[in-house]
Amino acid sequence: MQLLSLIAALSVLLFSVPTLAQTPRAERPTYAIGDKWIPPSGVFELIRIENDIYIFSGEGRREIRLNKDLGLVKAEGPTGLLEFHPSLPLEWPLEVGKKGSRQIEWQTLQSGFNRIYVNWEVESYEDVQVPAGSFKAFKIHYSFQVGPLGARQWREIFFWYAPEVKQIIKFASPNFKGMNWAVVAIDRPEMAPLDLALREPKDQARFDRESIVLAGKATSGKGVARVTVAVNGTEVASRGERSGPRNELLFEVPLKLNEGRNVLIVTALDTKGEARQEARTLFYEGRGPSASEQALKKQLEEERKKAAEIALKAEQEKKRLEELAQKRLDEEKKKAEQLARLDQEKRTKAEELARKQEEERKKAAEIALRAERESKRLEEEKRRVEELARLEQEKRKKAEQLASLPPMQVTISSPANQSRVENESIGLAGLVSGGTGVSRVVVTLNGTEVSRLQERSPLRSMPVNLPVKLREGQNTLVVTATDADGLIQQEVRTVHYEKRAPLMVAFRYPEDRSRVNEETSVVAALVTSSKGVAKVSVILNGAEVHQQSERSPQSSVAVTAPVTLKEGANAIVVNAIEADGNARQEIRTVFYDRPKETVAAPKKPLPDPPRERWAVVIGVGRYESPEVPRLRYTVPDAEAIYETLIKSAGFKKDHVLLLTDRSERRPTLRNVKWALGTFLARSAKKDDTVIIFFAGHGAPEVDQRGVERDGFSKYLVPTDAEPDDLYSTALPMDELQTIFARLEAQRVVVFLDACYSGAAGGRTFASKKTRSAHVDDLFLERATSSKGRAIITASRPSEVSIELPDLGHGIFTYYLLQGLKGAADLNRDGIVSLQELYEYVERQVSQKSRAVGGNQHPVMKGELEGVLPLVKVSAK
Predict the structure, then answer these.
(1) What H or E segment, with its residue span, contains residue 108?
(2) What H or E segment, with its residue span, contains residue 645?
């Protein structure tokens, strides 16, 4: 029954990304090494991926394998084995109403393959409450027949999958007792809350140019839907991924500022509609009138001059035409008088002349009329120019009047910017005044409008006084005021609501006084405190089994710890300590009822498992702390060892884990401990061989009260170590004893191309608290005191491990590589053994170091029974 529970649970361990569509839908996912799932029976972690098969490992040497469609391939535990062919069915994407069926085969240790018929259906999308929280989840129903022909019976299993946390959160079955449980904790680091970070510009920045660039990023485990940008109350840009929401959205937006003060507000929205805002107050200080303003002023002045010239010419032309017409009239009059005195004979000619005179008069009148019309046109043009000048003068006077008015100002007296409060409700108090009169005031909180004050007749001032309800964490308050001319002014306050919360320990699992029938289980709890949680430990029956410390105390810390129960009553204590030293404990009593032994049918003997070889190869060259010297050849050392183990030594590629500055999983303290204490412990079996290689800094630290007779603790230094706090940030050499104890493999060999003297140069350094001194190798003897453990170091305790540019490696690693490629086959039998490899490397390194003026002698501690072959090479 327990095995069926394990199988059914892990066979449908699913992850997917929720979409924005109205119809719930889940796409087929992929896994990453280190993914965890936490049912009541313990923590299961993905430790390997082989040929599209995901391999999850849990406490008690339990393991399950899923294919790329997440169908169960094989499940193995301490009580048995189960294998499906093909896997249990499930089709992607998941949608309500989707269904299917399949005939498959399964087998156990007690029987060969037997056929079963499996039906499945996605029945609904509903709210589900489990110890880990409340979630929206798909309900999936499996039904299948079991038993001999003629007596088959239907069995049912239900599970709920929550897209929000990307996990199966609950199982239920009326037929299988062990199939009724829910997840007790969620370990999904990618489900981070919505966060918005602006890289540029900085708050209160001043610019001498109007064009700037806004740069930043928005992140959310639920996916970032959109980022909008507003300047002085006007939205100027919006960013979002066309392909759909992503966990991280980077943006660079060009902006144009107004002269003077500007308020920039950036709003990020996630797929659930949650908003996060960041505000910046920016100042653009111009350098006098712009080129366009100067050009407009010059053009207006030229138009004025041109209009005056046109008016003058029109007046002169009118006067000239009038004088010309009068002159012609006078001349014609004189001629007419002369003709009148002529005799009768000349009258006809005189009349003719009179007629011509009349025609001339008409022409003169027409000329005078045209001159009058032209004069009127010029007069109208003059009046138009004068009107334009008058309007410009009025505009200038109005601008001068506006300039003399106090500018519209938004003043917030409460709350103060960047204030931190412990009450959910606070009062917003302020005053808007000045300008041409205040017509509207709008208040928004985290992008949502909470108040609007509007007046038909603008007021000289408008008070702002209202209560606002904050959300926990950062809040952005924006007051936007508009005057009668439409001018906008804004003021922003960022307020942090830190809900006052005492130190609390909330057990999620197990329940107090509960009874379980499995020896292995898990403790899940949530520790909260507004002061910050500094340290949490789990104590089982008086012995500490788990501890986690926070460098920066957090307000909320999730605790998940595997435990092994003893028969009968077990006392589980979760002890939490705040940053100021205040402590709190919560205790649960759990009873383990060992299942009664039943007489089982004789099992078929299992074949001897094949002997496998495993390795972890680590190279650290670049350190986060500038006080730790960088090493040039440690990463090439590790990469060369990795290639040699895979190619020359014949190790399976998925059995060798590489951690360097350039690898996907970097050599941080957490990753190094995971690789050595989790990956190897859950992978290597009893008859397997394990090789560990480390190239990087070793370092001593003063510890007069420790077990070392020389007064120094020794450490391997990971990439994130702090040189003045090696105790909490580096890997102590004594930790190798703990790691060795976790490994079931009977043959473990460690190669360390590092030293611990603290002397200048080489692969060592000393912290400010430690001076170079004589150190001993007692720590190596302790680490290899157990049977089947050997450590080969690059040098003696007080020597320096040397790097040489002409070799491109550390001396020790260079000859280690040569030896593995065949140079160490001293007896020419085609096999390089550990003993041969050490003899070869010790001799070559000693000679080479003396040749370059150094002094380096490799050391081997510990023993392995018999000869340990490492590499097959061509016999010579």
Answers:
(1) strand 99-108
(2) helix 634-647
Triad 12, 193, 586: Cα angle to 5°: 75
Beta bridge mates, 248: 219
- Contact present, 90 and 99 (Cβ < 8 Å): no
Distance CA 838, CA 379 (A): 113
pTM: 0.51
Tokens of 626: 């500038």
Listing DSSP states for 508-559 in one string gives EESPTTEEES-SEEEEEEEEEEEEEEEEEEEEETTEEEEEEEEEEEEEEEEE
| Residue pair 802/810 in contact by the 8 Å Cβ criterion | yes
Neighbouring-strand partners of residue 619:
660, 695
- Positive/negative CA dihedral, 522, 69, 139, 94: positive
Spell out the residues 6+ positions from residue 698 whose beta carbon is closer than 8 angstroms to its own.
Answer: 714, 715, 716, 717, 752, 754, 755, 756, 763, 764, 801
How close are the terminal C-alpha atoms of the chain, in Å? 58
Token pair of 150 as six digits: 């003629």
Local mean pLDDT, 10-residue blocks, the chain (876 residues): 45 38 71 78 80 78 76 72 76 87 75 76 91 88 75 80 83 75 72 84 92 91 87 91 73 92 93 89 77 62 74 76 78 72 68 78 81 81 81 75 76 93 93 90 95 91 94 93 91 91 90 88 90 92 88 83 91 93 92 74 46 93 90 93 91 93 91 92 90 91 61 86 89 86 89 68 49 42 66 84 87 93 87 90 92 88 75 71
Q: How far apart are CA 747 and CA 539, in angstroms?
A: 32
Burial of 668 (0-12, 13-18, 19+ CB in 10 A): middle
DSSP 8-state assignment for residue 179: G
Q: What is the DSSP string of 812-869?
A: HHHHHHHIIIIIT-TT-SSEEEHHHHHHHHHHHHHHHHHHTT-----EEEEE-SS--E
Is residue 839 within 8 Å of 869, Cβ to Cβ?
A: no
* Token output for 809: 């490696």
DSSP 594: P
87 close to 68: Cβ distance less than 8 angstroms: no
Q: Is 120 helix (H, G, I), strand (E, B) or coil?
A: strand
Distances (CA, A) of 301 to 296, 522, 547: 9, 86, 82
Sign of the CA dihedral running 540, 543, 548, 552? positive
What is the amino acid identity at position 429?
A
For residue 155, the cross-strand partners are: 144
3-state secondary structure of 240: coil
Check: CB of residue 602 under 8 Å from CB of residue 643: no
